[in-house]
Design brief:
about 250 residues, alpha/beta, seven-stranded mixed beta sheet
């Protein structure tokens, strides 16, 4: 074994130990949550762009997603929720770097004209399939399933954040995800923020993506929460939302 391999193994072992200690540091984790609560007052997640488009994500989650996409090497990413398109462009850019025949299927019930125009004119457009529809419409779900047949698929849920809607998305799209890929649910942090943090939205504590994840996991043995992501990110909008597939679906 080369010295470089020894160094890499030592580095990773030390890194895992540090992450474990950080996860056990209650004071640090509370400080991180206090920071997120305060930053929410200033719409912190809205302040970043990817290749010119607002991405509306925390930098930590952007890096985590990059690590997962590199690890999984998906043929297709299914993303519900487009917003201003930054996440869609981000995922498309990573698929482009991976090479081969890959694409993101990006679904939103309302793709506004200015956002569609910006995405249509973007260099990453060849890797993006835009679909304007409800993500839980049965015909749309069947259409996506047909496109994903025989492909390695990663799913990201980031649209309507109510319990009912997210649970319906989980049930619809989980069968597309194979062993060692991921089903990722964004904005589970809503459950951990003070009640009333989103007065203009229909989700809140007790009715949000994390409550949907909890209910979904009671019904399946195919997915588990990736505790490593929860332990190392510290600042994340998706605590308990990175779901790793540990068993292929029954054919």
């Amino acid at each position: 074994m080369s010295g470089t391999q020894d160094d890499d193994q030592e580095f990773e072992a030390e890194n895992r130990a540090d992450i474990k200690k950080m996860a056990a540091d209650e004071e640090l984790n509370q400080a991180a949550m206090d920071l997120m609560v305060k930053a929410q007052d200033h719409k912190y997640s809205y302040h970043f762009r990817w290749m010119g488009r607002p991405i509306i994500q925390y930098p930590q989650d952007i890096i985590a997603m990059q690590e997962i996409i590199w690890q999984v090497q998906p043929d297709i990413i299914v993303e519900t929720g487009v917003a201003r398109g930054g996440s869609t462009v981000f995922h498309a850019s990573l698929l482009n770097l991976l090479g081969g025949e890959r694409k993101i299927i990006a679904i939103d019930i309302d793709i506004r004209a200015h956002n569609r125009k910006a995405l249509d004119e973007h260099p990453m457009r060849p890797w993006i399939e835009l679909i304007e529809a409800s993500s839980i419409d049965p015909d749309l779900v069947e259409q996506v399933k047909r496109q994903c047949a025989g492909k390695r698929v990663l799913v990201i849920l980031d649209s309507n954040h109510t319990h009912e809607h997210v649970l319906a998305e989980l049930e619809a799209y989980a069968p597309l995800v194979g062993k060692d890929s991921y089903l990722i649910v964004m904005d589970t942090v809503v459950e951990d923020l003070p009640p009333g943090s989103f007065p203009d939205r229909s989700w809140d504590v007790g009715d949000n993506p994390k409550t949907a994840v909890r209910e979904f996991l009671k019904t399946t043995d195919r997915f588990e929460i990736d505790g490593v992501q929860d332990a190392k990110l510290l600042l994340t909008v998706a605590p308990s939302g990175y779901l790793r597939c540990i068993k292929d679906a029954m054919s």
